Amino acid sequence: MGLFDSIAGNILGSVLGGNQQGGGNPLGGLLGTLLSGAGAQEAPAAISSVINASGGIGGLLEKAKSMGLGDVVGSWIGKGENQPISASQATQLLGSDAVKEVAAKFGLNLDQVSPMIAGMLPVIIDKLTPHGEVNADQHSGDALTGAISGLMQGGGLQDILGAVLGGQKPS
Question: Fewer CB within 10 Å, N- or C-terminus of the chain?
């Protein structure tokens, strides 16, 4: 991550209120953490760990089907519009323990990080499956971690966050 990323993280954290005691906007704190230094380096491993805990993208899709969310997760993999998922649905899908681990890595709690994961998960899975297919060799384990790391380099994290905050499907 470069100087711009660090500055952008600090500005977003300030503008959105940061992760302050007794009230600030936790989204601002998470964005600031993700866009700056160590947070940007930890984000790919944290995201891939929660997806891998579900068996990779394929396992996540199977779990979603059993929960009645197959069409939602399928929309992220397919080439159409991404359907949204609520924070509570994302937590159920990924497992509250896995989401709590991610929250702890960034100094947040479950209620703070769940909405961000609910926003980022569709975009990340969409970007990792550009051809509308799940490849077990590429979408689980260390390969998934590497793919997410590659996705977030060179401005990719900003693209993901822009899509999450702007509500548009990334190109």
Answer: C
Residue-range definition of the domain harbouring residue 107: 41-166
The tens digit of pLDDT for each residue in 57-113 reads 899 999 999 999 999 999 999 888 999 999 999 999 999 999 998 888 878 888 888
pLDDT of 96 reads 92
Output Rg (C-alpha) for the chain, integer angstroms. 15
- CATH number reported for the structural domain that contains residue 139 in this entry: 1.10.10.690
Q: Are 81 and 111 in contact (CB under 8 A)?
A: no
Gap between the Cα atoms of 115 and 87, Å rounded = 5
Q: Which of 49, 28, 47 is nearest to 112 (CA)?
A: 28
**Using one digit for the tens of pLDDT, what is the confidence trace for 8-30?**
444 444 333 444 333 444 455 55
> Is there a domain that residue 3 lies in?
no
Q: Are 34 and 161 in contact (CB under 8 A)?
A: yes
- Which of 26, 21, 18 shows the shortest CA–CA distance to 119? 26
